[in-house]
């Protein structure tokens, strides 16, 4: 079994944690969290099981750290994509497109299954990460309403419905032509759903995605609410 090395203790710890997160993410793409053991995570990460306990008290502790790490990265990429987009409707369209593309690369366990297998406190802490995404989308919708681009509506409900549509639906197609057709339909559908006029221009170009090598189909992200 190859050893994870680092020039310093801190670097070694960070590399080990990254390996464990990557391992858990890969496993979550193939089976539910309650079917994954710490031995599975250790074996897939090519580390001893003892190494897992040097970093995490138990499986729930690992999951919480993993979700926090993935959420930070996920939000950073979304924020970068939105950084130079000023028009609220364009921001909404970029947000939707990035969510649909990014979900190929981030592995989140199904929130519905988690409520049956985790402690109430852990489930509550996991769901708290949904607030980050909900706040980001809520701000965009409020800006569009304030500028007269959208009719008044129950923004909290719209956020839930949009996330359910984008994150809880079919996997984003891997084939470039099918993916672009899907993204165009998704863009039109969400704009119509929130009462916006159909856009006369494409979604502004944002992040570069390695779209030709998507990860396996993912479970619904708990951030969808």
Automatic annotation (TrEMBL):
InterPro entries attached here? Homeodomain-like_sf, HTH-type_TetR-like_transc_reg, HTH_TetR, Tet_transcr_reg_TetR-rel_C_sf
The HTH tetR-type domain extends over: 14-74
For whether the record's keyword set contains DNA-binding, the answer is: yes
| DNA-binding region, residue intervals | 37-56
Q: Which residues cross the membrane?
A: none
A GO MF label:
transcription cis-regulatory region binding
The UniProt entry, under PROSITE patterns, shows: HTH_TETR_2 (PS50977)
Region annotation Disordered: residue ranges?
204-225
**Keywords (A to Z) from UniProt:** DNA-binding, Transcription, Transcription regulation
User: What domain of life does the UniProt record list for this protein's source?
Assistant: Bacteria
Its recorded name reads: TetR/AcrR family transcriptional regulator
Naturally occurring in which organism (per UniProt): Actinomyces graevenitzii
């Amino acid at each position: 079994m190859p050893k994870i090395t680092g020039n310093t203790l801190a670097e070694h710890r960070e590399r080990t944690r990254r390996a464990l997160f990557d391992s858990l993410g890969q496993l979550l793409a193939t089976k539910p969290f309650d079917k994954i053991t710490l031995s599975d995570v250790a074996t897939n990460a090519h580390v001893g099981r003892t190494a897992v306990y040097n970093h995490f008290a138990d499986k729930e502790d690992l999951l919480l750290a993993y979700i926090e790490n993935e959420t930070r990265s996920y939000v950073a990429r979304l924020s970068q994509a939105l950084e130079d987009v000023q028009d609220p409707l364009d921001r909404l369209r970029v947000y939707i497109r990035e969510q649909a593309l990014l979900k190929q690369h981030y592995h989140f366990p199904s929130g519905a299954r988690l409520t049956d297998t985790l402690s109430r406190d852990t489930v509550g802490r996991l769901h708290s990460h949904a607030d980050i995404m909900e706040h980001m989308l809520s701000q965009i919708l409020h800006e569009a309403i304030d500028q007269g681009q959208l009719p008044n509506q129950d923004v909290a409900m719209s956020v839930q419905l949009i996330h359910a549509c984008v994150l809880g639906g079919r996997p984003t197609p891997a084939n470039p032509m099918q993916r672009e057709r899907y993204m165009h339909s998704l863009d039109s559908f969400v704009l119509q759903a929130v009462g916006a006029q159909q856009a006369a221009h494409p979604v502004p170009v944002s992040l570069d995605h390695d779209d030709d090598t998507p990860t396996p189909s993912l479970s619904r992200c708990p951030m969808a609410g």
